[in-house]
Design brief:
It contains 4 helices and 6 strands. The chain is an alpha+beta fold. The protein has a 5-stranded mixed β-barrel with strand order 1-3-4-6-5. It is globular and about 80 Å long.
């Protein structure tokens, strides 16, 4: 059975490409921590179609993600004639667990701005318009 589950943070923004036929692919690398600090493993991940569009929208460097998928391999001959090979996880399910530090900061600011805009006095006090529309 070829089934992989990993959880980690993106080491850089995803590299997303859209093809002429409308298909999209996102390539990114996830740092997966081990028991010790020097046990970190860097795993390449590919996402296609709707999952790729979601990654392009929600993933940034530092985002925490859970990935389920299968291990795949790819081999080719480079321009210099050497044989190359890569192993990656083909994502079948991606869970966006936590935004990157940068995105969390801007989201916290938006939440605080919304809190500042609606104070208890503003929320409870009826406006003149509200009073004019009362049916009795």
């Amino acid at each position: 059975m070829n089934n992989v589950s990993i959880s980690g943070r993106l080491v850089r923004d995803p590299d997303c490409k859209e093809f002429d036929d409308g298909k999209m692919v996102c390539d990114f690398t996830v740092a997966v921590n081990g028991y010790r600090k020097d046990d970190t493993v860097f795993v390449k991940v590919k996402a296609w179609a709707a999952r790729a569009k979601s990654c392009a929208q929600f993933c940034r460097k530092g985002s925490l993600v859970n990935i389920c998928g299968s291990m795949r391999g790819n081999s080719w001959t480079a321009k210099d004639g050497t044989k190359r090979r890569e192993i990656y996880v083909l994502a079948s399910d991606i869970e966006f667990v936590q935004l990157s530090q940068e995105e969390r900061g801007s989201e916290d600011n938006q939440i605080q701005d919304a809190r500042d805009a609606v104070t208890p006095e503003k929320a409870l006090a009826p406006t003149e318009e509200d009073l004019e529309t009362v049916p009795f």
